[in-house]
Amino acid sequence: MYSQVKYPALQPFEHVGAGFRALKHPGPRSFLANSSAIEMSPEFGLDVRGCNLAELTAEHKDQLALESRAVVWSSSGINRTSSTVGPAFILNGLVASVLCTSTPLQAILTAITKSTWFTNCSFELQPAGLTTFFLLAQPKTGGDTLYSSQVLNFRSLSPIMQDFLRTLKATHGRRQPAFEAGRNELWLNFLYDHIVKCGDHQARIKWEPMSVVIWDNRITAHTATYDYAHMKDLRHGARISAQAERPIPAVGSMKMVN
């Protein structure tokens, strides 16, 4: 269920990544000092427990922004019971939306596979960067979210394929990107298939009460699972994204087109 409220176009602004400030810290992962951090896989996914997210210092928040993996903050310590549920809002570069999926769309239920990998707001000139998501209500079991590292997915390709992909241009609409004529279906299907099959670059988040997931939307894809649909349970969540910089061409000679 999506809000029908219309908002004006997002305005250009100069983005400064909080993670850059953390590079100057003597211990860029000191925010984990008083917590238990479980590596969900060797290179992607971190489950943090025993630390109150609401009590992080400004320096610790910068360090969290530097993390390139999806971070799930279990038992975050943030009280969400009094959260106001309403339509999307835009404020100072933050884009927030409330998602309610008590019953998945019929198109999803009847599909052979119900998982659709995507990133948020990638059609914007300055797409979403750091993003948080949490559930206000959830089924007793099921409704997990899977995250995939686009950095690791790209690195796993051959050097020749990496160099080739850097030369491609795409026009990104609200539904999906489109490459130049004649290349669209072939290369998009190849890349989508690569994301789906790279299970060693994925982390699966099993939601717990008070969990919050934080990830870099610029380099991370995700998908929900709809295995709870037959139980008629409510899965009700909220997502908050901070706008980031405009994407930079992979090859210096290429120019961005408005």
TrEMBL record:
Organism: Mycena albidolilacea
Domain TauD/TfdA-like stretches: 187-239
UniProt record similarity statement: Belongs to the TfdA dioxygenase family.
Residue runs in coiled coils: none
Protein's UniProt name: TauD/TfdA-like domain-containing protein
The keyword Iron appears for this protein: yes
Keywords recorded for this protein, A-Z: Dioxygenase, Iron, Metal-binding, Oxidoreductase
GO molecular function terms attached to this record: 2-oxoglutarate-dependent dioxygenase activity; metal ion binding
Any single Gene Ontology cellular-component annotation: cytoplasm
Listed InterPro entries: AtsK-like, TauD-like_sf, TauD/TfdA-like
